[in-house]
């Protein structure tokens, strides 16, 4: 049996980022939190917390913290908990599944933002209990639900298009014009270029790790980028953005969640499916 007071201390440190903040949350002294985490590390025989500002968890520490959250989630279906269980889930930055979270008011969420092509890794490592992913193949121990497809449009401001694509939206012009990417994992721009031109030129790109700022940057003429059609619709209708070409890039999305938590996760799964039916393309 685990010492659940020690697990609570570990989870509090990893959630708040410091022993002092964890102590305030648990209403104990920082020394008590430190002693509980140290005792747990000695019992497990591994370092669980990387001390720093903020404190972060090792792989083993994160797994133990997730274990505590799963126990709390299971217990919530049996008794009335003092505090709402925390669900750690991985979503892509553009994921409209986050719109569903308000429909599950008796839970707290710890959202891990990751590219849909990589979000399933958190499930494999046991760091999250669910993920919106582009992978149809089930992670071992997980259920898979197809949500639909998110349509992306290659967009830029009218002035940017006049400046960089006067001669047409060719592979050469796309390679020369500044692009926008979310982060190093974001391959949407390259995927669209390959889809419409049959070529894979190296793209020069600004990195902007915010979906709303991504749209704004395109409106301001900083570069061209793949924007989710639902987020870019108003700017397109107002003439602030224009599609470079009419061809969209449609990315299929799936909800994968831990099978052992199927029952307690059922309200979240239902809410995500309902949100997907409203905003994603359905086949």
The total of beta strands comes to 11
Overall geometry comes to elongated
Strand content: 15-25%
Number of helices: 11
Helix share, percent = 40-55%
Break the fold down into its secondary structure elements and pairings.
Blueprint: H1 4-16, H2 19-26, H3 30-44, E1 49-50, E2 56-57, H4 59-76, E3 86-91, E4 108-113, H5 120-124, E5 130-133, E6 142-156, H6 158-164, H7 171-176, E7 179-181, H8 188-197, E8 205-207, H9 211-219, E9 225-228, H10 229-237, E10 242-243, E11 249-258, H11 262-279
Parallel strand pairs: 3-4, 3-5, 7-8
Antiparallel strand pairs: 1-2, 5-11, 6-9, 6-10, 6-11
Helix pairs in contact: 1-2, 1-3, 1-4, 2-3
Describe the structure.
Helix content is 42%, strand content 20%. It is α/β, with parallel strands linked by helices and 283 residues long. Strands 3, 4, 5, 6, 9, 10 and 11 form a 7-stranded mixed sheet that branches. Strands 1-2 form a two-stranded antiparallel sheet. β1 (49-50) and β2 (56-57) form a beta hairpin. The mean pLDDT is 88.
